[in-house]
Amino acid sequence: ALRATFAPKAVKENRNLNHNLQPQASYKVAVLGAAGGIGQPLALLIKMSPLVSDLHLYDIANVKGVAADISHCNTPSKVVDFTGAAELANCLKGVDVVVIPAGVPRKPGMTRDDLFNINAGIVRDLVSAVADNAPGAFIHIISNPVNSTVPIAAEILKQKGVYDPKKLFGVSTLDVVRANTFVAQKKNLRLIDVDVPVVGGHAGITILPLLSKTKPSTSFSDEEIEELTVRIQNAGTEVVEAKAGTGSATLSMAYAAARFVESSLRALDGDADVYECSYVQSDLTDLPFFASRVKIGRKGVEALIPTDLQGLSEYEQKALEALKPELKASIEKGVAFAQKQT
Ligand code: NAI
To answer: Rounded distance, CA 109 to CA 23, Å?
Structure first.
């Protein structure tokens, strides 16, 4: 079952905590880029998790106020702010999950790949600090282009000798969130029941919703498949255009990232039934990185789930073949960038 809410449970358990009625799990989470459009609402949602004991908020500017503000919420976690590279190491020490939404977002007319020149260096530097200070942490990469920034992160971790492919995740949860929402609307289904796996990558045609695998089992006309697939692939651009130059998805992204953090924390806490789609190192196709459903456990990715990719419709099979060259090029671009740094 997919968890849709955070708030009621968090508040209820916090009351218990205050009265010392039950032991609480206590994980440390760091958000790098916490003063940004995604970072702020994401930090707020993570603050509501009963599984978090410490919330470390890092940015190059403006994070003090964000942390002071969020710290007044009477949920269990302690909020600490860290500003600038000199405070990054302390931000990361002892952290279990590091979430990275640092970097520039798209403006109308831009592709995610247009962000490469700025965000590649930001991700390189932040992941390098994670390697030095929190080498065992789960790393969630939100900064775009995710198709390239995850391979960059992998290379940097390899260079530092601490790469554990099971713990490096590209956050593609928003694609699943959007697919679930649009399919439920189109087919008049209860949102809470709908689950559409989204595979491939996280940009344009590399985002491949597997509508034939929708749960509950649902049939679509060819027109519906085309319309829904294109809408899911372009949903980010829909938001970029609506925001008309002021940024890209931040609120739905924060919601999606918070869900992925919560799933990771439940997995760390021993829940044996945690499945999410994520862009990870993979051998499900001939590409070294690929988004698919994965089972997450205490040590990170416990298994890649191959079944979604079996028995694809003709439309999906074609789309899968069509996305591979673009995804491959994005992966190679990331790897080449990271290898140039040594
Ligand atoms: P934003 O510009 O509002 O915030 C970015 C934050 O990163 C700023 O506070 C900035 O100070 C900070 N930052 C810049 N360089 C940094 C550094 N070296 N260390 C730490 N922090 C640094 O941007 P927004 O809207 O929050 O988007 C952030 C990223 O997330 C973008 O790359 C965007 O493309 C990506 N994104 C990813 C999605 C996904 O599905 N994976 C969906 C939506 C956005």
So the answer is: 50
